[in-house]
Amino acid sequence: MFSLPLRDNAQLRPLELWHAEEFAVHMDRAREHIRPWVGRTFVTDDLDGARATLRRYAERRAADGAGLYGIWLDGVLVGGVLFADFDASSGSCEIGCWLEPAAEGRGLVTQACRVLLDWAFGTRGMHRAEWHCRADNKRSAAVSERLGMTLEGVRRESWSYDGSRHDTQIWAVLAREWRITRPSDAVPPV
Amino acid sequence: MFSLPLRDNAQLRPLELWHAEEFAVHMDRAREHIRPWVGRTFVTDDLDGARATLRRYAERRAADGAGLYGIWLDGVLVGGVLFADFDASSGSCEIGCWLEPAAEGRGLVTQACRVLLDWAFGTRGMHRAEWHCRADNKRSAAVSERLGMTLEGVRRESWSYDGSRHDTQIWAVLAREWRITRPSDAVPPV
Amino acid sequence: MFSLPLRDNAQLRPLELWHAEEFAVHMDRAREHIRPWVGRTFVTDDLDGARATLRRYAERRAADGAGLYGIWLDGVLVGGVLFADFDASSGSCEIGCWLEPAAEGRGLVTQACRVLLDWAFGTRGMHRAEWHCRADNKRSAAVSERLGMTLEGVRRESWSYDGSRHDTQIWAVLAREWRITRPSDAVPPV
Amino acid sequence: MFSLPLRDNAQLRPLELWHAEEFAVHMDRAREHIRPWVGRTFVTDDLDGARATLRRYAERRAADGAGLYGIWLDGVLVGGVLFADFDASSGSCEIGCWLEPAAEGRGLVTQACRVLLDWAFGTRGMHRAEWHCRADNKRSAAVSERLGMTLEGVRRESWSYDGSRHDTQIWAVLAREWRITRPSDAVPPV
Amino acid sequence: MFSLPLRDNAQLRPLELWHAEEFAVHMDRAREHIRPWVGRTFVTDDLDGARATLRRYAERRAADGAGLYGIWLDGVLVGGVLFADFDASSGSCEIGCWLEPAAEGRGLVTQACRVLLDWAFGTRGMHRAEWHCRADNKRSAAVSERLGMTLEGVRRESWSYDGSRHDTQIWAVLAREWRITRPSDAVPPV
Amino acid sequence: MFSLPLRDNAQLRPLELWHAEEFAVHMDRAREHIRPWVGRTFVTDDLDGARATLRRYAERRAADGAGLYGIWLDGVLVGGVLFADFDASSGSCEIGCWLEPAAEGRGLVTQACRVLLDWAFGTRGMHRAEWHCRADNKRSAAVSERLGMTLEGVRRESWSYDGSRHDTQIWAVLAREWRITRPSDAVPPV
């Protein structure tokens, strides 16, 4: 019912349980591409798995604890952004993203993340927002830099994938930094 | 984060758990006005009650079973519309509304209900949508007529309020009727 | 442990979880006959399904919200009646029935429904009791008429079965109507 | 809805959640009399406590694990019998009772227990039924003897009451013993 | 992390969820040997079953209601002792044991049970501890005697195994008896 | 039942639900001293609060997800160490501590943390263990240094206390670092 326009005929919408079939088909296109870079439980193999992911986030969203938002490009679900964690009582959240290959290179994720941060800082009064990525995920680190985030630390060998271990970067942006970063003519958050 | 413009500087947004304080204050203004016309558990007396209502609907929404949407007028929560019931497997849903006095007479509820029906019929493929109201609630019946609904029946003395009993009307509109009713230039549902 | 005599050597008893095997065997005889006329989740295919139905009703009965009562004819479970819904706080309930072919035509269902209505109105002080059936289910509508019910409305195309849609009738009887309808020499409800 | 006649214008019925007010009032009359002889959680002080007891047993009954049955004398709830435990998989159950003073001395409990045992052994195929009582509860031990039970053991100092400890007797009757004990003209169990 | 030395290079430790694989392998060695003498749900066939047992006890232990403790002999899990039941509010508990054949005859179970009883009586202030065993389980009855327990009763034919029924003995020791039984130089319980 | 000796007549034991009264009394002595340095939900005001903390950790421990261990000095509970998080599937855990003033300066926490790390790395095969503390908590940072941990990052202004915000340090030690750090004659972990 609700939708926000992104560039290139793309749209951002809440990704909900009833999208399960669409999400499963999208996962078929995205799976191998995103598997090294996202959390282990996020990549699923079938409709039941897709439904489980959507339900898990829906339940956390109902408790104001997380949130999943899909990106549709030309009417096709191609990825999304999320609040991996959202803790209003401490004023901290963590955002993230995933995208299938065909939709890369258009800045959709960066633009969608800005929507999340505008809402987190502007509407919800959060104090800081984090971004976690594998240290060798250049593309992801570039997004966090474009969002004005600062590298705050490196969790050594904390990311386990396919039998080997990788460092995890923690980036973050504070509310007062976000207000400086945002162009003055930005759409006011709702 | 998401919002749809209604007329008169009003907006429709998902009404969520984190709105509890705003919802409780709104309920203070709406309580006596809406009490005779809404379900008994909908009217609450304090912040805990407001939170309980929002949580109950959030959990049902997480399971694709209901949904609560607030109407903000000039930035103030003044009422809303809802899927009191939403059953995708049978293709039937029930919509409803509530409004505080100051926001009446502007057609906000009718416009917001159209958004719900566009989504239910256009996006979700529902087959029918119901509207339940006390038989002596002229204002509510008028909304259902404006939505192109047909009076399908009257549940005699099924509405208990303040020691007396009232009839309840059941109105409904079918998907094919909705497609005829809607102006052809309407914004395509998302 | 408890049992009420119906005519023709039939008996009405609470239908409980421990009847699961008997209920599954009965369902084998009743399945194709009742499938078009009962709720989609009521018809099950095996013992696990039968157990799930009995457990679901048992849990609702524990909370005073529904109830399942079997009809045994010559010691064989042949069908039953139920409170599909029972809401003491609003004073409304809905009753229903199902029967395998061999037990039809004896008036067992009508007699069993009278037991439920005597209890609902006489013992529990309910205000109204509903009966829902497909509009083309002549046999079911005839039961509701025999129970003194009034047709209150028709939910158009709300009953989905096997790819097509049917109207659903809503019948109801009020407490004061029931007291007039019942013969004065009826056994007092317990 | 269901009822079994006992002697002296008394009746045995399932004791359910909706009896909470009646049960609370009965508990006011029975409390001090039964407190030394029943389980600690069975005696409650108000309507919420009564409701909690009834709900707890209702939930166990829904899972075929226990059961509460009230005795009404001249239309007044005066006590009851129960399956304190019912385990169909092992074939063992435990029965018990409680009664307010005014209803004592009529054999109501013994008669009601016979109903439970007929059902447990005759209908449900249980193998044994136990009876637990404080060793100094002569009245209770007399019931178990009348039921044809054998004293199987004494749990020393296992009953804690009001700061002191008492022995607990375990009585039991086996299915084959029950069939011998019952008079041949007994009503067949249902 | 925690461990208590028993004789013969054996150790007693909490048996927890993360031991599931080790427990499943041990069950492969113990299964046929212990099946006649332990509760029906304790013997499992695979890793999932082992995990279910450990989880069930872990949840009861979290609520102070039971406890599972493994015996490791030369670093191999060979059996254990348990609080089959632990009810601090009534001051009663029940202990038990199981052992694979290779570890029998060393007194490990008796020694481990003494640890449980020292803790139950000395640290937790329990009043009595029970021991249940099949009446024809000479080995088990011998343990209860070595622990200074008294035979309090025999539940006739209450133990169902492989189509036949056996008597169950109830043994128990009271706190004051335990203090007499224990040698004065025993390690003080912690 | 289980206990590990620390220096100065101190002992480390699982801190469980049944310690609630002792934990509440300890919290009375520790509250104001630890409040600025521990998580907001850890400091409680009464017995119910103490019980809630112990139950929450007990349930997570039952699922192998966390763990609470008390330090008793001369028989008095004076503080403890914990797995604030324990995720065997990713090989990462987080440890922490708290202590009332009278027990400081003896190295008890460092010694107790070594027990946790020996178990995490040696017994459970974890890959890394973290330590989180307010950046101005010199005493806590000193413990992490003594444990051979490396400062991996600083979460800016992520610690909210009493209306102001503080940075949070993340320290960590890897399994291979721990093996080098530990003296070769250390007691083998169990």
Q: Largest sheet of chain A, order of strands side by side?
A: 1-2-3-4-5-6-8-7
β content of chain A, as a range?
Answer: 25-35%
Whole-number count of domains of chain A: 1
Largest sheet of chain A: 8 strands, mixed
Describe the SSE topology:
The structure is a homohexamer of 190-residue chains.
Chain A: E1 4-6, E2 10-14, H1 20-34, H2 47-62, E3 67-73, E4 76-87, E5 92-99, H3 108-123, E6 128-134, H4 138-146, E7 150-161, E8 164-174, H5 175-181
Parallel strand pairs in A: 5-6
Antiparallel strand pairs in A: 1-2, 2-3, 3-4, 4-5, 6-8, 7-8
Question: Which short descriptors sum up this protein?
Answer:
homohexamer, Aminopeptidase, eight-stranded mixed beta sheet
How would you sum up this structure in a few lines?
Chain A has about 190 residues and is α+β, with helices and mostly antiparallel strands.
